[in-house]
Specification:
214 residues; alpha/beta; 2 domains; three-stranded mixed β-sheet; 10 helices; 8 strands; globular
């Protein structure tokens, strides 16, 4: 990782801890260190003030705690993380302990790509021995209904107890469905009580694609 990005992250943590608005603070340090667009996105998505990072970390449960639990899966969030790993896109271990990709603005995965990722996610859930898994997809996204049906089909084929649905309010559905929320979305994490970084777990433990720590 470039020294400039590390130095910018140090400065950004200081500004965020002092209450500066994230967008303004990122722009200030990114301009100072003349960072490229990718590095700017990394700062925006991955750097947190210490108090926020600690709150998120306290919610993060280990894989062994999922045995016998009902999990709600933030469908597109998890699949896009896996897609990023499969296609060599940057993945970062963020200050709050969650793995996130920075693929904003790059080509989006097609339906077939997402089905391919499902073929990795569902066996992973099977290995985690959850009692029930509920996938939630954002209904306005193209072919979300088809993807939801495919999810139930693949779960049935693997013997994974679960269901899948689409929703106009996916965040609220995800938070209401399970004992543990599988996501790396900071907005959802902030409202959840227990979280599991399913995407990060899969890409690190199964695909062997360790993320970069800023």
């Amino acid at each position: 990782m470039p020294d400039a990005l590390r130095d910018a992250a140090v400065d950004l943590r200081i500004l965020l801890s002092k209450g500066y608005k994230r967008s303004s603070a990122v722009r200030f340090v990114a301009d100072r260190y003349r960072l490229c667009r990718t590095d700017r996105l990394a700062l925006f998505r991955c750097v947190y003030p210490e108090d926020v990072a600690e709150v998120h970390l306290r919610k993060l449960v280990p894989a062994e705690d999922l045995r016998g639990a009902t999990i709600s899966v933030d469908g597109f969030n998890i699949l896009r993380t896996v897609y990023a790993a499969l296609h060599g896109r940057p993945l970062y271990l963020c200050d709050d302990g969650f793995v996130r990709d920075i693929s904003t603005g790059l080509s989006k995965p097609k339906f077939g790509d997402l089905v391919e990722c499902l073929g990795l996610v569902i066996p992973c859930i099977c290995d985690l021995r959850t009692s029930f898994a509920i996938f939630v997809y954002d209904r306005p996204v193209s072919r979300s209904g088809d993807l939801s049906k495919k999810t139930e089909e693949l779960m049935g084929a693997k013997g994974v107890p679960g269901a899948s649905k689409t929703s106009m309010r996916p965040d609220s559905e995800i938070l209401a469905c399970g004992d543990v929320v599988a996501t790396s979305d900071s907005v959802v994490i902030a409202r959840a009580s227990k979280c599991f970084d399913l995407g990060g777990y899969l890409v690190s433990k199964i695909l062997g694609s360790p993320p970069t720590k800023i």
